[in-house]
Amino acid sequence: MSKLVIVPTPIGNLGDISARAIDALARCDIILCEDTRVCSKLLNHLKMNKKMLPYRDDNEEKQVQKIIDLIGKGSTVCLTSDAGTPAISDPGYRIVNACRRRKIPVEPLPGACALITALAASGLPSDGFLFLGFLPSKTSARTNMFKKYADFDHTLIFYESCHRILKFLKDLQDIMGATRVICVAREMTKLHEIFHVGEIGQVYEEIMGMSTKGEYVIVVAPQRFKFSP
Ligand code: SAM
FRET partner for 175 with CA separation of 20 to 30 A, picked from 61, 90, 155, 157? Predict the structure, then answer.
């Protein structure tokens, strides 16, 4: 039966693709991907040659009807993104929503997701959390977000790029204080994976002394949480 299959891909280690994900990619008619070069790398690794259709933030709206028509004509379509779970700070929710509205089956495969990997490895409270993705790049807008959520009673999770990580931590410290407990998860599942866990002041000092190259997830504990090594 034709359907949309949500297929998570590795966030750094090709070994993290699941058996079900490989099976879904092998069986489908078309793979939606952000960047065909990134997807080809994964397909080459899996020794597969499949039809790919670009599906990115800038063409998402335009592509939805085309994809719905393909599924309507009997195609099974896999939704992927460059890394991790599609639709999580990545394109995807529009096509899923379009399928839901038309009662087209959507099959989700669980798999790699940077925010969940970071939270599980952080050692910070994980019974409740709020994921806020990428914050605005302007300091004032970012600072306003920190002010808004400073007293939130559960853990906060953010994504950030290597270009802004130090500014992000500096602003976070200015608003939430140097003793707030955080975990900065860098390059998870890759060769240079590092977790910096402790009070912001100390973590900021640690990161300042290193090259900031890499990908980051920042996990921020609620104010009540204390961390003693
Ligand atoms: N869909 C993805 C997911 O499921 O996590 C997220 C895509 S988002 C465009 C990319 C961001 O996720 C990166 O800028 C970084 O903040 C975070 N990220 C992805 N892979 C990571 C890794 N291996 N280590 C640390 N952070 C990572």
Answer: 90
